[in-house]
Amino acid sequence: MKKRILSGMRPTGKLHLGHLVGALDNWIKLQDEYECFFMVADWHALMSEYENTAVLSECVIDNVIDWISTGIDPQKSTLFIQSQVPQHLELNMIFSCLTPLGWLERCPTYKEQLREIKTRNLNTYGFLGYPVLQAADILVYKAEKVPVGEDQLPHLELTREIARRFNSLYKKELFPYPDAILTKAPRLLGLDGRKMSKSYDNTIGLSDSEETIKKKIQTMFTDPKRIKLADKGHPDICNVFSYYSIFIPQMKNEVSDWCRNALLGCTDCKKRLALGLIEKLKPIHKKRQELTKDKGRIKKILEEGNKRAKAFASKTIQDAREAMKI
Ligand code: SF4
Fold first, then answer.
1. Distance between CA atoms of 138 and 150, rounded to whole angstroms?
2. What are the pLDDT tens digits along the chain (326 aa)?
């Protein structure tokens, strides 16, 4: 029998290339090997977007269109909306009661985000408890594996701690101790060389038009020492070159040669990158257009996914209540 995994994405904006190489490409591979539950994590989005909830409903359908356009297959995987499966909150409530506060206060990402994010007040009860909700998300499906980046490992350890605590308190091996599937994603930077993020306004969206892609790529930072056309460049420190490596690897050697021997200017190098990227994104755009015209189909996929997820999660809650004699 296939092992089960759970992963999700917060619907806080349009998806971009960072989501494609950082998560979706990996999800696409996992869906053949595992029984996958992929959720639109709208409760998690609410924790930072509670003052701007309009963005959540706008993004749910749009994000799922991107998932399917890039290759997530609703026939193979269960796609659902977290807030439509109330059992996540029921298990979150149970886990909240048995999780010591110190476990949450020690969480490195909690401390880091409180320090770094100044645009909204995250000093809330919900935000402190979000790793508990994550544990509930994972364990309500008894997921044995969770695809994560290195920064999420402490959260997964917390999930295992919570599972251990429940199993030992109620003397029943109900929950598994899920392992990480460490995501080996290529490091894709934004147009300005910082981490790709909508808050830095440095993304290339999966739904960006061809014209927008061309314009955005022309703004990309390059080798700062290559000022004139005759200057020889250093592709290894150029962000444009890293895009070639990730999206059009078959051109890597050629581009390196153009650059190191000053055979082509940066403007032309970027123009060719834009054309290659547009070509690469064509099948996604085509599928996207088709699905955007038929949002009813996406809603139906999500309804079916919600139903499947709910059926699984209800059974877990029933078992948890029995173990707790509630
Ligand atoms: S030629 Fe291309 S790879 Fe070289 S510095 Fe310019 S943009 Fe970068």
1. 17
2. 899 999 999 999 999 999 999 999 999 999 999 999 999 999 999 988 898 888 888 899 999 999 999 999 999 999 999 999 999 999 999 999 999 999 998 888 777 777 777 777 788 898 899 999 999 999 999 999 999 888 888 889 999 999 999 999 999 999 999 999 987 778 899 999 998 988 788 999 999 999 999 999 999 999 998 988 889 999 999 999 999 999 999 999 999 999 999 999 999 999 999 999 999 999 999 999 999 999 999 999 999 999 999 999 999 999 999 999 99
Q: Are 40 and 71 in contact (CB under 8 A)?
A: no
Where helices occur in 229-294 by DSSP H, the ranges are 239-247, 252-260, 266-292
Q: How close is the Cα of 108 to the center of ligand 1, in Å?
A: 38
Ligand 1, atom 7: closest residue by C-alpha: 266
CA 246 to centroid of ligand 1, rounded, Å? 15
Of all residues in the chain, what percent are helix, strand and coil, respectively (each to 5)? 60, 10, 30
Other residues' Cβ atoms within 10 Å of the Cβ of residue 202: 21
Residue type, 167: N
